[in-house]
């Protein structure tokens, strides 16, 4: 595929970039890593921004008009997403699960009523979603989910606990994996519900991370009555649908992530001109220059791998196990670029945001701490390498999993 934009696409990119310049919140500073003091303020800014995007005809470029989309092309959707990621990715952060997982899964697996109810409210910023898969005993092995859902009088009565649920404290809905048939083999007894987070019996408890932020949570559910109409797909299809969500999660936004990381490389260069190492600007240090070159190469690798997946999508393909390659290509380099930046700052590298001595308002210190979770979220690096080995390269199954999958 030729990845250069046609003249019409280039004109659309310019038109959207100019709209974006006039429609980012007036107090938003793209150079700051955190524009909002609280998550609630950030979530509100995200909802307002998404509403403006939708009113201007830029939300869901490739989604059907009947579901609040624009009925245009996937290429235009990519242009919109990439342009936002390059300039104001923070405004999209609370929507990462909403747009990357909930929307595509509902679109592919939902019935007409679910698509008509939920997709327009996702696109116009009304709803934020979270993902309730992981549990204390089900992380890498998601099929171990033990949250129970029992049928009762037109409802599923849900009781159990989820953990590491990003944005649950902000979310209106949750894509929830539950066990409806404890007697069936573990992959077969699962179902997939759309949970209204305001239902009685749902309790969200934030977990504080090493960054000092608490943006993921424990979610406790006790006798929560979820209407049967909120079952996605058929009862017992939960595992199959969860794999669809995970494929979207892993294939998600490599191109837009690469756009955000390109901005980070530019920020890294600006930082290395500002700080001194062994008495001269860090940018002149040969070890730092190697780190910088590696970061740039890694961003380009992520970008072109993303474009390869994207061209597969344009030709009608759906995300498959090769999404795990992209997951490794964004998470591990994200750790390395933050380490390189903190290293380049020498002793000042220990100073976080809020001190007159902090460099670029502690952007890299925050990233250094936050990036530790990146090789765990959306599936650990070890698990991604297993998937690539077994399902992309066709190597024999890892023996411990082969034994477990017989259970
Ligand atoms: C920042 C962040 C956000 C998250 N957000 C969400 C969310 O929104 N929703 C959600 O449901 N979950 C979320 N998670 C949870 C995440 O998906 C799990 O943490 C992850 O899947 C790993 O599961 P676990 O923590 O149970 O680790 P375990 O599965 O217990 O793994 C422990 C270690 O064993 C290794 N391991 C496990 N199995 C194998 C194997 N077969 N071969 C080799 N090594 C193996 C792992 O790589 C890891 O090093 C989030 C996690 C983080 C860090």
Q: How would the global form be characterised?
A: globular
Tally of individual domains: 3
Low-confidence stretches: none
**SS field, number of helical segments:** 12
Topology order in helix (H) and strand (E) letters: HHHHHEEEEEEEEHHEEHHHHH
Query: How much strand content do the residues show?
Result: 5-15%
The appropriate CATH architecture of the largest domain is: Up-down Bundle
Bound molecules: flavin-adenine dinucleotide
Main sheet record: 4 strands, mixed
Structural class: alpha+beta
Gyration radius over CA: 22 Å
- Quaternary state reads single chain
How many strands appear in the DSSP assignment? Answer: 10
Mean pLDDT: 93
CATH topology of the largest domain: Butyryl-CoA Dehydrogenase, subunit A, domain 3
Helix content: 40-55%
CATH class descriptor of the largest domain: Mainly Alpha
- For the record, give the distance between the C-alpha atoms at the N and C termini, rounded to a whole number: 44 Å
